[in-house]
Amino acid sequence: MVPYLDLKAQYQTIKDEIQSALIGVLESCQFVLGREVGAFEKEFANYCGTQHGVAVNSGTSALHMAMLAADIGPGDEVITTPMTFVATVAAIRYTGARPVFVDCDPKYYNIDVTKIEAAISEKTKAIVPIHLYGQPADMDPVLDIAKRHNLMVIEDAAQAHGAEYKGRRAGSIGDLGCFSFYAGKNLGAYGEGGCVVTDNAERAEKIRMMRDWGQKKKFEHVLPGFNYRMDGFQGAVLRVKLRYLEQWTEARRRHAAQYTELLANSGVTVPAVSPDVRHVFHIYAICSPNRDALQAALGEHEIQSGKHYPDPVHLLPVHGDLGYKPGDFPVAEQLGREELSLPMFAELTEDQLAAVAQEVRQWRLSNPAPTS
Ligand SMILES: *Cc1c(COP(=O)(O)O)cnc(C)c1O
After folding, report:
1. Within a domain: residue 346?
2. Which of 179, 191, 253, 319 has the most CB atoms around it within 10 Å of its CB?
């Protein structure tokens, strides 16, 4: 069996350090925020190359806090793409603002920078690029458009810990960067977690207050309040795991290169990597017509795989009120139909990887792509 993700394999490699870190939290009884979370925020901001980091209880909360710190609210519009996890769009809607979608670019699947300006209106307040699958969006044109139209840039870097665009780390490029530490992310907590990073001291301070009931000091509530605090246990786990992140990321990048080599000329589309970026391969995404049949065939050989994401957000029933319809964003919709995520984690073995590639090739040979 080749699992899509193997958290147990990773745990085995860091078990002793994790256990002593957790015992440290038990001994200190700092279960909410506290020393470990405070230290982690500093270490993670440093890793991202930003002045400030504010830890929260999920990536969704990070996005919500960033939106509020950017003064986004009812009547505003926020531009993003429909090929993302629902959380990006949910966070926009929590503020009362309206998400406005633009399609993905057909090569790298991130926001199509040539389509952003046509979506800008008087009400537009921010652009939210998603660094999909771990590959940074084309940020220079995004920053340039934002500057000319006086818009905020909030990066959804939930899949892109340690990714780089022209030497700059994901999360540090726009005004605010949002990360998720959901267990399956490249840097995963043992539970839920998230962080906002920024160079703006004032916005960081606002988020620091809002995540803890908008308090300036105890019981002095000056801002809208949320209980978005990170647990002490998660801070302790994340501090241990952050020390391994570069090593794990390099392993992912090696696996990706190997998949790409083994799948050359196999008839499936392998990921294109922009020369401007360090892709961290949260997801190794291939594309193929008959994706569902391929997934079923892999399943028969006990190879797990995933889809990210089968329905672009504009077609989800929950956002029907926005008035979008099938055909509005053809690149995202095609990706939804054709994308398949192959097993990807640092501990993936050569044999596992070779077995996956072999089955994909085999299936493709016996099921040639329909010629169009
Ligand atoms: C995981 C993810 C989120 C949400 O993070 P949670 O920690 O699950 O709340 C947001 N955006 C993207 C692109 C994600 O992959």
Report:
1. yes
2. 179
